[in-house]
């Protein structure tokens, strides 16, 4: 079994603060400390492929303002000249104080894109209903388990980490397939290097 690149993230929308784990930091070409402390949404979006960001604002803003589930397969530019595909899955909801909070996972899917293409349109899929679907509930519990497993030392948690990462990747793909709202994507130019 190989190690999967699956990072954890959370966002406090009102505070404009996104935090992530070391896997997310590495995936996005960021320093662990800055992601642990928190970065702004603008900082994170500056790493996204500019053509994919064009699709984001309307649907993403709705999910971040109203709550709900999203899955977004898109490109990032973690360093100059390098393009990677990631699948971000998350859920936003208001806490008891009325703050909109989000959390989820991000998976590097560059080497396993189901359509076999490295260039092409990004896909933003959203569902605005509450998180009651079975797959969503499983994904939420798997994220909680992943967070707990990552607190254990590597020697005793190695196999569990591989299994939970594989489960999260499969859940992300199944949730993406189950959502219906897919906007039309613009044509994408060719010629960028993918690693």
Key words describing this protein structure:
195 residues, alpha+beta, Beta-Lactamase, 6-stranded antiparallel sheet, 6 strands, 37% helix, 26% strand
Description:
- Helix content is 37%, strand content 26%.
- The chain is of the alpha+beta class and 195 residues long.
- The chain has a single domain, classed as Beta-Lactamase.
- A hairpin with a 4-residue loop joins strand 1 (6-12) and strand 2.
- Helix 6 (134-149) runs antiparallel to helix 7 (154-178).
- The chain starts with 5 loop residues before the first strand and ends in a 17-residue tail after the last helix.
- Mean pLDDT is 77; it is low at 128-132 and 180-192.
Major sheet summary line:
6 strands, antiparallel
Please list the strands of the largest sheet in the order they lie side by side. 2-1-5-4-3-6
Judging by the overall fold, what is the CATH architecture? Answer: 2-Layer Sandwich
Classify the helix fraction into a percent range. 25-40%
Determine and state the CATH class: Alpha Beta
Residue runs with pLDDT of under 50 for 5 or more positions: 128-132, 180-192
Q: State the CATH topology.
A: Beta-Lactamase
Q: Say how many strands there are.
A: 6
Please state the CA-atom Rg, rounded to the nearest Å. Answer: 16 Å
Q: What number of structural domains do the residues give?
A: 1
Number of helices: 7
The CATH homologous superfamily is named PAS domain
